[in-house]
């Protein structure tokens, strides 16, 4: 059983490298950021004003609770086809829109909302760490902001993937050219670091700074770390 926990700031390439890492080993892949994004998307769809000076935290918490407990939310942890569904609709692209990126911290900063998501994430990790779902043996790569510290601090492999701010900003701006939400990564990190700690590695967490690495080099470093843990 191998649990790989990867945290890091916006624009570091966590999702693409984590997904490739999971595929390499035939492990499940859990994008916890996608879960927070889906919650923000759902709240906006229900007409909740996330631009309000005082966001109605109780309403957001209730709405997110219903999203999960009433079965509207679903996520595929297949690394070859990860997707997020709301009432069966594939919202994987919709949750990457800049409108969602710019509002997601308003939802993820609400502590009771985090409790709902952390419990759900722990359940996915426990299930996939016990089952051989994708032919590589029981294992999962979970990535986000608080996986190494809160969701799965006992994971076999714990990594803080990071890069210099200007490098991350350039990567996001490059993605924007292809139509995938360009944004101010530093602003989102500031908002997110009020409730999660992903700017510095916690005890026992290995920092991988990929500022001067390309995708394949980053993946190779992570593959070696997982091989060492197997
Ligand atoms: O990783 P991604 O950029 O998709 O995450 C979207 C947002 O979800 C983050 O900006 C943060 O607000 C929230 N998040 C979180 N905790 C996690 C993962 C993501 O608060 N473990």
Could you explain the architecture of this structure?
Belongs to the TRAFAC class TrmE-Era-EngA-EngB-Septin-like GTPase superfamily. EngA (Der) GTPase family. Belongs to the cytidylate kinase family. Type 1 subfamily. Its main location: cytoplasm. One of its GO terms (biological process) is pyrimidine nucleotide metabolic process. The chain is α/β, with parallel strands linked by helices. It has a single domain, classed as P-loop containing nucleotide triphosphate hydrolases (Rossmann fold, 3-Layer(aba) Sandwich). Helices cover about 45% and strands about 15% of the residues. The chain has ten helices and eight strands. The strands form two sheets. Strands 2-6-1-7-8 form a five-stranded parallel β-sheet, sandwiched between helices. Strand 4 and strand 5 form a beta hairpin. It is globular, with a radius of gyration of 17 Å. The protein starts with a strand and ends with a helix. The site of cytidine-5'-monophosphate has 15 residues, from helix 2, helix 5 and helix 9.
Quick tags:
alpha/beta, Rossmann fold, 5-stranded parallel beta sheet, 10 helices, 47% helix, 16% strand, binds cytidine-5'-monophosphate, Multifunctional fusion protein
Question: Could you provide a short overview of the structure?
Answer:
The protein has 230 residues and is of the alpha/beta class. It has a single domain (2-229), classed as Rossmann fold, CATH 3.40.50.300. The chain has helices at 14-25, 32-45, 57-69, 98-101, 104-108, 111-130, 147-151, 165-177, 185-192, 215-229, and strands spanning 2-7, 28-31, 73-76, 83-86, 89-90, 139-144, 157-162, 206-209.
